Amino acid sequence: MSDSTTSGPDNSVGRRSVLLGGAAAVGGAALASTVAGSAYADVRGLPGAGVGRLRDPFSLGVASGDPLPTGVVLWTRLAPEPTAADGKGGMPNRPYPVRWEISEDERFARPVRSGWEWARPEEAHSVHVEVDGLRPGAEYFYRFRVGNDVSPAGRTRTAPPPGHMGDLTLCFASCSHFGDGYFTAYRRMAEDEPGLILHLGDYQYEYPASDHDVRKVLGPETRTLANYRQRHAQYKTDEDLQLAHSVAPWLVVWDDHETENNWADEVPEQPDPDFLDRRAAAFRAYYENMPLRRSSRPRGIDMRLYRRIRWGGLANFHMLDTRQYRDDQACGDGYGISCEDRFDPNRSITGEQQERWIMNGFRNTRARWDVLGQQVFFSKLDLDSGPGEGYNMDAWDGYVANRDRIAHGMANSNVRNGVVFTGDVHRHWAAEIRDSHDHPDSPPAGTEFITTSVTSGGDGSEDAQQGVLDDNPHVKFYKDRRGYVRTRFSADELRVDYRTLDHVTEPGAPARTAATFVVDDGEPKLHRRN
């Protein structure tokens, strides 16, 4: 893997991207030949089947997610007018049958599975297809059709069979504010050709437009279902984001801004009698716009998002929800403060049921690497450089007992290599996790890798935070630039590349590797390679 990538004709992913685009370009003729005599003739008589020709109903692209050894979720959403203020995407108020197809090649000459799914107005004409019957550890291409319109093609893959130990390239990202800059990091991530992508929260932001925005944010602060649908749609019109969705399956979890800043279970940031209605609307729109299984379909103000994906024998990905079940932040929330309430053993960021689920996963694992994919800083981080102490109450430092129980479980279970992937803080960090962070001599429990933002916070700076690093010896790296994290899992080691962009206030920046760390199998310690 190179230290710098730019798009262009010599880039292998550029070639793959052309193939994906070409698969869509072959359009109606190629797809019609594969479905002649198929179930399409039987569906034409159903209500809403005769759609005519819509204006690019696939303007939001395609996506896949939550891969299993024999299947994967395919997603699209019909929206010929994607940013319509009513959140309906310009679609009539009736259902449409959507054809889906999976092939072993990008030109769809070797189709293996196909079928129909309804795009319904009550679900914003989104489509979630849970495909089964595929080969484990295999690459596939997929696309959709409605009427005479054919979607762009996407590439996906199934998880390997149980016990398989082949290598995996994985990228993860978080915090993409549309107004703060261009989503170039998503394109660079796609150019790395990962087998899997994790998004760790703040996929979209609820804020209204600002005078300082680099790109115009549409609509008011998101509070209603129409607001959230419009905001998600605006984000998904971004070509860089569409490309990243189209090259690999995603595992997604939310943080706060998909709903509202710093919300905690049923407690909003500021008093709001309508918060639960807002939460229900945000959850519904999130599901409609993500490649999630039906098991994550929201029920009012509740949505089961934490789940576990097994990648052969190589890795387990325990995807957490640290918003929906947490106690309200201690000490009035905020930064740079400390108080005794954060040590209360009864306070939780995961909730009791999710904590038990995490611990059961640790006890029963047989994977080489166990990864927590989650939102906020896990390791202890004293932000007050010098003799004082100050902590972020919105992170795990505001829930010390809960954090230490999980770190202890990671260090004293069947977990062979414990890893935490984190978003939220708009900076790159790397840290070693201790069994108890208040006892620096306690046994090592795992390693934590925190990704910077895609755009949030703007271009960044060369601030080194040396005082904070000096006060937190278990923290080994800091970088204030935008980007993402690229990883390579193997049976012997985990390699982590911190990818950065010099700017996001203008499009097209190359990605560079600011630092590389390696974790050897069986040794929860960070080894810097550059």
Automatic annotation (TrEMBL):
Residues 60-158 form the Phospholipase D N-terminal domain. Residues 170-498 form the PhoD-like phosphatase metallophosphatase domain. InterPro entries: Metallo-depent_PP-like, PhoD-like_MPP, PhoD-like_sf, PhoD_N, Phospholipid_Metab_Enz, TAT_signal. It comes from the Bacteria. This is Alkaline phosphatase D. Gene3D superfamilies: PhoD-like phosphatase (3.60.21.70), Purple acid phosphatase-like, N-terminal (2.60.40.380). Residues 435-469 are annotated as: Disordered. PROSITE patterns: TAT. Pfam families: PhoD (PF09423), PhoD_N (PF16655).
